[in-house]
Amino acid sequence: MLQVRLLRPMKDAAEASLIAGEESLALNPRRSRHRDDLVGLRTLFERLSPVTTQVIGMTRAYFDHYDDSLAEDPAVRAIAEQLRRAGHDARLAVQAADATEPDAMTSAIPALTAPLVVRPPASDHWILVGSLMEDLRRIHGELRDET
User: Fold this and answer.
1) What is the pLDDT at residue 93?
2) What is the dihedral of CA 101, 103, 109, 114, to 10 degrees?
3) Could you give the CA distance from residue 89 to residue 143 in angstroms, rounded to a whole number?
4) What is the C-alpha separation between 77 and 82, in angstroms, rounded?
5) Euclidean distance between CA atoms 66 and 121, whole angstroms
6) What is the DSSP letter of 119?
7) Which of 5, 21, 27, 122 has its Cα between 20 and 30 A from that of 12?
8) DSSP H or E run through 5
9) Taking a C-beta distance cutoff of 8 angstroms, is the pair 90, 48 a contact?
10) CB under 8 Å to 4, separation ≥6 — which residues?
11) C-alpha 73, offset from chain centre
12) What are 32-89's pLDDT values in tens digits?
């Protein structure tokens, strides 16, 4: 929860930096050289900003409704795997916007291939699983640029 609480201030700081960069370029005679970079960063920010909000909500829901049996639920395990893959694709999107080659930890191939489909949860956690699935669907859509 401590790490996820830091996401919102980091997102706000990134947006403030983008705004400062845009304002700086407005009066800069060499702005055309950097305009494309800033537009790319703004586009990436707008694409990943909703993902940040979804991750914060998912973490809060999991934390609020946690019990030891959650780790045994196959749907929750599948959601965790999909979130790991979404993290991979978010890193890939950042590297693509930065025009760098993927590092050794990130393959150039997207890891999210299709939305996760699960059977109804076998546990009493069906509301939490449904909530996590909807947030995961939204993350998938943002990373696939389907919104």
Assistant:
1) 82
2) -130
3) 7
4) 9
5) 15
6) P
7) 27
8) helix 2-5
9) yes
10) 55, 56, 59, 60
11) 23
12) 777 888 888 899 999 899 999 999 999 999 888 888 888 888 888 888 888 888 888 8
